[in-house]
Design brief:
This protein is an alpha+beta fold and 231 residues long. A 6-stranded mixed beta sheet has the order 3-5-8-9-10-11. A 3-stranded mixed beta sheet has the order 4-7-6, with no helix packed on it. The chain has a two-stranded antiparallel sheet with strand order 1-2. The protein is globular. 29% of the residues lie in helices and 23% in strands. The protein is built from 6 helices and 13 strands. Helix 2 runs parallel beside helix 5.
Length: 231
């Protein structure tokens, strides 16, 4: 007797699911463009505002410029990432490729493991990104987590120290300098103001430092120690 194939259930926000079931439902409903599983609960992001999208574009340009001058790194927007038992979809990630010693890898068509830097853009300091997502990224061991808070005009760059996030201080000139990616410098005031020329000018200063040159050489040497991976 022929069996009747049952339709895949919907993916409503607030549902508690395993990651396997979350992905099964999501992949069966191509009309769903954005969804995240955090703490085993389904979240559906709100519609993206102009300010959010514009800042995402500027931040992506900043990270893309760094990636272009740092062989062995990769940049992506809105990639579903298998992290612990969850599946967040961060706005941006900058990572070291696995064949260069990075902490993440592909699992099918998705990212798995720990990207070295995640970036989220939100409106309020009370937002989801600074509470539930921050807890997930900290528990997973994401080394750096940058949050751009539009409503408060604030940059919060978290670094993992002894298993807990601490805020990265700015240098004497007011610039943030990544600890994981030498030469990745950020003029936060310029970014919040939408002044991409100054953002990239400050980054170019970081790219000219000996620290960045040494990092590129380190990545090149690391590529001989790790098995190549299609990424």
């Amino acid at each position: 007797m022929a069996t009747v194939e049952q339709p895949v259930p919907p993916l409503p926000a607030g549902t508690r699911l395993s990651r396997e079931e979350f992905m099964r439902r999501w992949e069966a409903h191509p009309e769903i463009k954005c969804a995240e599983l955090i703490g085993g609960i389904v979240y559906m992001p709100s519609p993206v505002s102009w300010d959010h999208g514009k800042t995402d574009g500027d931040a992506g340009t900043w990270l893309g410029h760094y990636k272009a001058w740092t062989p062995g790194t990769a940049l992506a927007h809105n990639v579903t990432t298998f992290m612990l038992d969850d599946a967040p979809q961060p706005d941006l990630n900058l990572l070291i490729l696995p064949e260069f010693g990075g902490l993440s890898h592909l699992k099918g068509k998705y990212l798995a493991g720990i990207p070295e830097l995640l970036v989220e853009i939100c409106y309020s300091s009370w937002a989801f990104d600074l509470q539930i997502k921050r807890e997930l990224y900290q528990a997973a061991g994401v080394p750096e987590y940058l949050v751009i808070v539009l409503g408060d005009q604030e940059i919060r760059w978290h670094v993992l120290e002894d298993g807990a996030y601490q805020l990265l201080p700015r240098d004497a000139t007011g610039v943030w300098r990544s600890r994981v990616f030498p030469g990745l410098w950020l003029d936060g005031s310029a970014l919040l103001a939408g002044n991409l020329v100054d953002v990239l000018a400050k980054l170019d200063e970081g790219l000219k430092t000996a620290e960045h040159r040494d990092f590129v050489e380190h990545l090149a040497k690391s590529s001989f120690l790790h098995k190549p991976t299609r990424f």
